[in-house]
């Protein structure tokens, strides 16, 4: 028993590391380094937003590929696919010589997270005891915050050395993937569907309220993840070191997302979503209204980071509850919806900022996040599975 618990703890730690690299360092590292990239490559807001949108779109493509691989019984191969994308993309980004090559690196690297999440959902489900699986999934998911903290601290300590940092991201991707692979009891062969398990299209119907809510929240969240640090640097006039440390505050609060599993148990999926969405929208609005006040910016970023990771954790738990027979597939679908929203939001909000102002762009983003809670409230009963329908 002690050996099983030790293996479970090691997997959770390793999985958290994989999420930290693929999400916190690689996927959201573009937004962290955007002020430097804008200066070095001369990127207008619309182009910067388009590159971010490409990264989010790459995530969606990787998530769909991951779902296909897992359906065929290859979750381990899916994990290493995520590693390959993160490694190659990071190295191309580090060597970027033009805005075009930068875009290629960022898109490839950002897609890695799309394969990592479904692979780790399967890894946790096949290795961790069912009684603690929800909590383990939430802890692994909170690795986003860990990665954002580390990324911010590294950017502050190694200001101007962004190319070296991206090389380090590639090395870290290989290391944590190997660790997670070694600690996982991988299922053998394709998972046999349970009797009475619904077909994919039936799953989509059950997930519909969550899908719409995820798209809207994703679109709104793109403002902070893509343009947040640049806003504080340009509009707020804060020093680069200060904004890098503030980025770490965002990530540190995101680690609290590990409690999202407990939040769903206490409030239920709909109320948990509404609570996190309201906090995230308020944080987005406050950040743009007073971007030159460090304490207020720190508070807003902390609120945003914690609520965003908790919100994505709610999606994971909802997927497992609504379709326990296809938890990994449903997680991929919901995260594709979240990231599709981020792709649309990054491109649209970047263009809106160029056409109007950052304030209009960020306030529009806050409105979209609030709308996501309305969308989820349309049929809250769909967010909770009907136990009677699940055959064992």
TrEMBL record:
Keywords: Cell membrane, Membrane, Transmembrane, Transmembrane helix. Signal peptide: none annotated. Its main location: membrane. Residues 10-384 form the Major facilitator superfamily (MFS) profile domain. InterPro entries: MFS, MFS_dom, MFS_Efflux_Transporters, MFS_trans_sf. It is found in: Cell membrane. It is a multi-pass membrane protein. PROSITE patterns: MFS. The keyword Repressor does not apply. The keyword Transport does not apply. Pfam families: MFS_1. The chain crosses the membrane at residues 12-30, 42-66, 78-97, 103-126, 138-158, 164-180, 201-225, 245-264, 271-290, 296-320, 332-353, 359-377. It comes from the Bacteria. This is MFS transporter. The lineage of its organism: Bacteria, Bacillati, Actinomycetota, Actinomycetes, Geodermatophilales.
């Amino acid at each position: 028993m002690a050996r099983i618990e030790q293996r479970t703890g090691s997997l959770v730690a390793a999985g958290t590391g994989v999420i930290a690299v693929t999400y916190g360092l690689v996927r959201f590292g573009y937004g962290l380094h955007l002020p430097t990239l804008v200066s070095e490559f001369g990127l207008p807001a619309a182009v910067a937003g388009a590159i971010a949108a490409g990264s989010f779109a790459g995530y969606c493509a990787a998530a769909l590929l991951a779902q296909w691989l897992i359906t065929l019984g290859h979750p381990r191969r899916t994990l290493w696919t995520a590693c390959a994308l993160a490694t190659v993309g990071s190295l191309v980004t580090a060597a970027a010589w033009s805005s075009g090559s930068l875009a290629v690196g960022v898109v490839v690297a950002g897609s890695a997270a799309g394969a990592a999440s479904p692979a780790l959902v399967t890894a946790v489900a096949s290795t961790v005891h069912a009684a603690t699986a929800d909590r383990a999934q939430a802890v692994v998911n909170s690795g986003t915050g860990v990665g954002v903290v580390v990324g911010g601290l590294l950017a502050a300590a190694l200001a101007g050395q962004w190319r070296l940092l991206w090389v380090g991201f590639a090395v870290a991707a290989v290391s944590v993937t190997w660790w997670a692979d070694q600690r996982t009891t991988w299922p053998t062969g394709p998972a046999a569907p349970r009797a009475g398990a619904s077909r994919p299209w039936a799953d989509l119907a059950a997930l519909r309220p969550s899908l719409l809510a995820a798209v809207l929240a994703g679109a709104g969240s793109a403002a902070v993840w893509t343009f947040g640090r640049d806003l504080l640097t340009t509009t707020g006039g804060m020093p680069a070191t200060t904004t890098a440390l503030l980025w770490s505050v965002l990530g540190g609060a995101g680690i609290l997302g590990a409690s999202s599993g407990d939040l769903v148990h206490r409030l239920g999926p709909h109320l948990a979503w509404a609570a996190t969405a309201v906090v995230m929208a308020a944080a987005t609005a406050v950040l743009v209204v007073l971007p030159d006040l460090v304490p207020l910016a720190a508070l807003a970023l902390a609120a945003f980071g914690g609520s965003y990771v908790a919100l994505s954790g709610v999606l994971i738990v909802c997927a497992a509850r609504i379709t326990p027979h296809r938890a990994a597939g449903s997680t991929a679908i919901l995260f594709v919806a979240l990231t599709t929203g981020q792709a649309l939001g990054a491109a649209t909000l970047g263009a809106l900022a160029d056409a109007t102002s950052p304030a209009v762009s960020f306030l529009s983003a806050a409105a979209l996040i609030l709308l996501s809670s309305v969308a989820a409230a349309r049929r809250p009963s769909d967010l909770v599975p009907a136990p009677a329908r699940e055959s064992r």
